[in-house]
Amino acid sequence: MFKFRIIAECPVTGARAGEITTPHGIIETPVFMPVGTQATVKAMSPPELEELGARIILSNTYHLYLRPGAELIESAGGLHSFMGWRHPILTDSGGFQVFSLSSLRSITDDGVEFRSHIDGSKHFMTPELSMDVQRALGSDIVMCFDECVKLPTTEDISRAAMERTLSWAGRCREFFRTREIERQALFGIVQGALYPDQREECSRRLVDIGFDGYAIGGLSVGETHDEMYAALDVTNRALPRDKPRYLMGVGMPENLLEGVARGIDMFDCVLPTRNGRNGNLLTRTGRFNIKNTLYERDFTPIDESCGCYACVNFTKAYIRHLYRSGEILAARLCSWHNLYFLVQLMKSARRSIIEGVYDEFRRDAMASLGAAL
RNA sequence: UCCUCGGUGGCGCAAUCGGCAGCGCGGGUGGCUGUUAACCACUAGGUUCGAGGUUCGAGUCCUCGCCGAGGAG
User: Fold this and answer.
1) Which of A283, A229, A257 shows the shortest CA–CA distance to A362?
2) Contact between the CB of A92 and strand B at under 7 Å
3) Span CA (A251) to C1' (B56), Å
4) What ipTM did this prediction achieve?
5) Which one of A61, A145, A162, A185 has the largest count of C-beta atoms within 10 Å of its C-beta?
6) Where do runs of H (alpha helix) occur along A210-327?
């Protein structure tokens, strides 16, 4: 059911163009996946997501487990049916919430005790529970339950989290094996902070367990870009060529271009939607904030070269007016543009890989963004 | 005409017994990377209606005036 096929590889960088087959359709890689934590990509409807080119979205185990609950979504016929999205869905395991809700939990080798951020109630999330919730949701790609550590960290703390992540990865794999779950793919997650030997070891031991794809976690959590790229280099070298690689939580355009050059096939990030709701816009020539006085009488689109709904139909001055007036359409148009930009950036990258010119494409795109190569 | 209440940043308001003039919104700017986030942070902005007076010291007390709201006639 789940297949990954490489179509073309860049002769200069490690970039590859591929195809992931899932029960809900084919995903062309490299791909950017919009984040829909609560069974909705904030401010966007499924037809709008389709229109801007998205063919896979992310959702979240922890949030849906707390509300509305896995049983309810299973009764609705699964997450696809519940939220009206007919294309593939990847669900994160709740591992990131171990990190982002750190003040509300305590970790043991068995699992994580959480206080709900909604009502304070106590819950115990284990690898098995995360798997069972994701089974009930019916996502196409399931993520292992992992432990993401805060950077900066120490070698010992990172190693402990890595060992726990590996132990949990084995339990997640085992859960799938005993339940004979075949419709859903399971991805392992590489941890190890910024320690090359830990990244390498974690990758190798995950491959020994055997997964349908491999994610790189624990990055874009405060380290510099160079540190992130160094961790990517070592991790990608250690991962098998014939499985998809997913860089979790990364969404700045320059990070995507550099990630692709290092062999990453999949990305997700809240940045386009969150920053969009906050008036921050991504363009091929860098970022800007629509709130600024500079755009008060600017009757040109967000990005002249952009073909998104917001750029084709509206001006900066109008969207700025909507934003300052507290109008919900501002958040929608800015989210729409940002998502379109990242989804299309990956589509363009894919084309250039197939044409054999990714290195040049990346160089030009990075220069345009004003980013150092 | 008289009585009562009020006048403080762009707007709405606070300031104990007379003791460093603050808050919210709005404005300006910055931040946001597997979403606790249509969020968060920083910043600018004052002749406290005017003129006198009492006091070491007045947004605060006294006198007169101006403006606004309500009431009486």
Assistant:
1) A257
2) yes
3) 64
4) 0.93
5) A145
6) 225-238, 253-261, 271-277, 309-313, 316-324
Identify whether A182 is part of a domain.
Answer: yes
Residue A137: domain span: 3-270
Number of domains present in the structure of chain A = 1
Both tokens assigned to A225 = 């870009």
Residues A160 and A233 sit within 8 Å (Cβ to Cβ): no
Please identify every residue of A annotated as catalytic: 92, 268
Using an 8 Å Cβ cutoff, are A110 and A101 in contact?
Answer: no
| CA dihedral of A172, A174, A179, A182, whole degrees rounded to 10 | 70
Instruction: Give the distance, in angstroms, between residue A325 CA and nucleotide B60 C1'.
Output: 39
Q: Which of residues 178-217 of A touch strand B (CB under 7 A)?
A: 189, 215, 217
Q: Are A10 and A16 in contact (CB under 8 A)?
A: yes
For residue A267, the cross-strand partners are A32, A247
Residue count of chain A, please give it.
373
pLDDT along chain A (373 residues), means of 10: 96 97 98 98 98 98 97 98 98 95 92 93 96 98 96 96 98 97 97 98 98 97 95 97 98 98 98 98 97 97 97 98 96 98 98 98 96 69
The answer to the question of residue A150 being in a domain is yes
Q: In chain B, which nucleotides are within 7 Å of a protein Cβ?
A: 26-40
Q: Does strand B come within 7 Å of the CB of A264?
A: no
Question: For residue A228, what is the domain's CATH number?
Answer: 3.20.20.105
Q: Is the CB of A91 under 7 A from strand B?
A: no
Please tell me whether any atom of strand B lies within 7 Å of the Cβ of A231: no
In a domain? residue A321: no
